[in-house]
Design goal:
Layout lengths: L1 H21 L3 H17 L6 H22 L11 E13 L4 E7 L4 E6 L13 E7 L14 H7 L2 E7 L4 E3 L6 H21 L1 H12 L7 H10 L9 H14 L6 H17 L4 H9 L2 H11 L1
Parallel strand pairs: 3-5
Antiparallel strand pairs: 1-2, 1-4, 2-3, 4-6
Helix pairs in contact: 1-3, 5-6, 8-9, 8-10
Length: 302
């Protein structure tokens, strides 16, 4: 039974991957379903039920991907059109040539907006309401077979469309609509400026990459050196970061058997999760660091 469940899951995942890789449309999906029905009618007396289970799970995976790409994403209807986009700025990444903003539009979809501005720092925009006017575009696909596909990468983040604008085409609200994310972004910006004062630009970029997985301020030559040496994984936030932080906090607070140390440790771990963007590896580590032990100690101190 376990083997059947595993193989069914693999077949379902293969349907999702194949649809994303081949860029199957709804019309092609209907054709595949038709072929599948024809084969089923021809081989109706074949008793290999397990084969049909895998084939059905593959088709369901394809369907799930197509529905996810078209469900509640009105921005796909705006491709090639000039639109006025309004929404909340979720994240802002500052680079040398531009700033990259991820916006949650009021229609419910996510959009990536690139602002080509070398002078301004758009960290202050996180948590604020943005109004942007420009042409909605699709991200680039891989130029060579097997190459990096920017469109698929953004889809994995829930982003299907982009805009490329100048500073004159955007405006922000005076007050943030999300004070928490706005305050955290300002804190990170303050922390980065303090690091630059103490360490310099090059060392600050390396430190931010190692602490938060933020590589936008890192020199490209340095990052390529890490890739060639096979050590680029240390520039991504992982569960090991959370484990080190948890171990350090338990040493500082001398255990976690009291209410106050428990509260401080949990809040600091959540704060680190917020600063690192709650990436999947951090979420997994936060859930795995003795949650039952924390709950038990909290209950015993009440």
């Amino acid at each position: 039974m376990r083997r059947i469940a595993f193989q069914t899951f693999v077949s379902y995942s293969a349907g999702i991957y194949a649809t994303s890789l081949w860029q199957i449309t709804w019309l092609q999906w209907v054709g595949i379903i038709g072929i599948w029905i024809a084969i089923s009618l021809i081989l109706l007396k074949w008793k290999k039920h397990f084969f049909w289970i895998l084939l059905c799970s593959f088709i369901i995976g394809m369907t799930a991907y197509l529905v996810a790409q078209s469900w509640n994403n009105p921005s796909l209807d705006w491709i090639g059109k000039e639109k006025v986009i309004q929404g909340e700025v979720l994240t802002a990444t500052q680079e040398k040539e531009k700033a990259t903003l991820v916006v949650h539009t009021k229609q419910g979809s996510k959009m990536l907006i690139s602002v080509y501005d070398k002078q301004s720092n758009y960290t202050y925009a996180v948590g604020k309401w943005i109004q942007a006017t420009g042409v909605v575009e699709l991200p680039m696909v891989a130029g060579n077979p097997g190459g990096f596909d920017y469109r698929i990468y953004l889809r994995s983040l829930g982003i299907s469309t982009i805009m490329q604008l100048s500073p004159e085409q955007i405006s922000f609200s005076k007050e943030p609509v999300n004070p928490l994310s706005h305050g955290l972004a300002n804190f990170r910006d303050f922390f980065e400026k303090r690091l630059k004062t103490q360490l310099g630009d090059a060392q600050t970029g390396l430190m931010l990459a190692m602490l938060f997985g933020e590589r936008s301020a890192m020199d490209e030559d340095v990052y390529e050196s890490f890739q060639k040496n096979g050590t680029a994984h240390i520039l991504s936030v992982s569960g090991l970061h959370v484990g080190f932080l948890y171990g350090l906090l338990t040493i500082i607070f001398r255990g976690t058997r009291k209410f106050f140390p428990n509260s401080i440790i949990m809040l600091l771990l959540l704060l680190y999760g917020l600063l690192s963007g709650f990436c999947p590896s951090v979420n997994r580590a936060l859930l795995m660091i003795r949650p039952a032990y924390f709950i038990k100690n909290f209950m015993s101190t009440l």
